[in-house]
Amino acid sequence: MEPLDCYHEGGFHPIIIGDILNERYRIVRKLGSGSSATFWLVEDVPLKRYASLKVLSHDWAPTSYEIDVARYLMFLQDQPNPHPGADYVVKIFDVFVAHGPNGAHPCIVTELLGPNLLENTEWVDIREYWTRLSPEVSKKVVAQLSLGVGYLHNCGVIHGGK
Known about the structure:
Blueprint: E1 20-21, E2 25-33, E3 37-44, E4 49-56, H1 66-77, E5 92-100, E6 103-110, H2 126-132, H3 135-154
Antiparallel strand pairs: 1-2, 2-3, 3-4, 4-6, 5-6
C-alpha cells in the first residue's frame, strides 16, 4: 500500500470503494499502487463488465506520454491488424480525467487481466524466480511477451522510461 502522504495536492486522487468515476465506473476494490498511480477493479456499470482502472497522480501526468500512447493504442485496436502480437497487448477501453481535491488525474480503463506473475512470491532475485516457473509456462510467457512487444514496436510504440 502506498504511504498516506501520497494523498496531497498534486498527488494521488482519493478514492473510496463505491465511488463512481466518469459517470460509469463504480470502484469495487483496490488492485494496487505504484510510484505514479493507483489501480482499481471497477465495474463498467452501463456495459455490466469488470475492468481495471489506472489513476495517475496529478504531478506525474504532465511529464508522461502514457495518455497519448493509450489513446493511440485505442485507435489501433479498432483497426484491422494481422500482426500476431496484437492479441497480447492489453485492450484499452477508455481514457478520461478525474478531477478532485488533489488536482486533475488522467485515468486509463483497460480489460481486466489475471494475477501478476510475481504475486504472492517472496523472491527478490529474478533469476531464482524464473527457475521456479515450469519450463512450459516460462516458454509461453516469453513467447507472448515477445509477440506483444513486436506488435508495439511495429506500431511505433517503445518504452523509453521517464
